[in-house]
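Severity: low
Component: inverse-folding endpoint
Summary: output formatting inconsistent between runs
Steps to reproduce: submit the following structure tokens with default settings.
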């Protein structure tokens, strides 16, 4: 028995080391999840039976009150949806005027929480959607109140989600009031987040809503993340201590949403937007604006070099004329030298060599006479 126990202990330690250091056991874990899925379903069966029985024997008064409450909420949400639809259409029209790509709404899919990681030092949960349902690594997960985390491990029918409050998780956020950017990191406490490296003079205060900024290209922008609970300023420290409370119910939410965002690059979006605009122009029979404006700068460009050469020879022609004005007096004493001096004045290229001996010779004779 002792030898068997020793062998099993060594084997267990070896498996844990291999699982922690290498990726050799990931396929095995993926296949084992098929068996564990049935275990999760069996362990969750009593709670689902209890909820089903409780819903069957609910009182009529509670059902009527809940029905009235749901009708009121539905009416309010419909009113907000009408305003949101108008704003969405206005945004689309403005982006069309700017010749920008269309804003694609994220696609979401409902998932259910079926398990939690028993390790108290890690905040991970298990959902009933996996690789065969189209889930990808890094996919954002949220509930009815805000962001919860992202998918970090895939299995055929299940996935592991790392919550925002885990010590190894960080997310870029911004203050909804003024757009101040920061990084929200997990603290290991399911009810607290911390903003790292926030300047002591930053404009942030208690009650500010923190939303995802989308700068990391992992989480979509505009989703609520947390609410600032406490801001501590220390005159001896360069950074303020900012604590926030997650908006999502990390310990209470059972039904979650998987966000399928647009994974296209900015270049692909710009190309598709240009192709769509070109197709729309051809359909309407209108002439594109950009090609019509291109020939105008091309015609105006050669005008400038024509003027520059014309001004240059005029300036050069004036210079030899002024230089030849001084040697006019000595030219009268020597008729043969005056005729070649006048001829180069008509042709600027010839005046350069001819003017040099003409100007130097009189200058020397004048000095000798003096």
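Observed output (run 2 of 3):
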């Amino acid at each position: 028995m002792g030898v068997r126990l020793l062998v099993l202990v060594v084997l267990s330690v070896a498996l844990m080391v291999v699982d922690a250091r290498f990726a050799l056991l990931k396929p095995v874990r993926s296949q084992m999840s098929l068996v564990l899925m049935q275990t999760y379903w069996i362990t969750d069966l009593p709670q689902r039976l209890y909820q089903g029985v409780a819903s069957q024997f609910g009182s009529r008064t509670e059902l009527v009150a809940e029905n009235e409450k749901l009708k009121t909420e539905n009416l309010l949400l419909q009113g907000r949806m009408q305003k949101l639809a108008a704003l969405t259409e206005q945004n689309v029209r403005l982006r069309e005027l700017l010749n920008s790509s269309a804003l694609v709404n994220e696609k979401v899919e409902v998932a259910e929480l079926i398990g939690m990681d028993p390790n108290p030092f890690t905040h991970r949960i298990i959902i009933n959607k996996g690789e065969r349902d189209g889930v990808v690594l890094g996919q954002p997960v949220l509930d009815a109140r805000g962001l919860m985390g992202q998918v970090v491990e895939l299995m055929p029918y299940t996935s592991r989600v790392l919550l925002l409050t885990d010590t190894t998780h960080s997310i870029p956020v911004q203050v909804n009031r003024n757009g101040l950017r920061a990084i929200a990191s997990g603290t290991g406490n399911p009810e607290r987040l911390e903003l790292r490296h926030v300047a002591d003079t930053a404009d942030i205060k208690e009650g500010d809503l923190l939303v995802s900024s989308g700068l990391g290209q992992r989480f979509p922008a505009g989703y609520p993340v947390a609410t600032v609970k406490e801001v501590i300023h220390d005159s001896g420290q360069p950074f303020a201590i900012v604590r926030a409370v997650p908006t999502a119910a990390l310990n209470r939410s059972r039904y979650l949403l998987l966000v399928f965002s647009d994974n296209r690059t900015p270049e692909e979006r710009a190309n598709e937007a240009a192709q769509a605009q070109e197709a729309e122009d051809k359909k309407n029979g209108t002439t594109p604006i950009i090609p019509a404006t291109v020939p105008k700068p091309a015609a105006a460009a050669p005008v400038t070099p024509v003027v520059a050469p014309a001004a240059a020879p005029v300036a050069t022609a004036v210079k030899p004329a002024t230089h030849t004005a001084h040697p006019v007096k000595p030219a009268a004493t020597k008729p043969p030298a005056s005729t070649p001096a006048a001829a180069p004045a008509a042709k600027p290229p010839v005046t350069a060599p001819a003017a040099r001996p003409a100007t130097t010779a009189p200058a020397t004779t004048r000095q000798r006479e003096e």
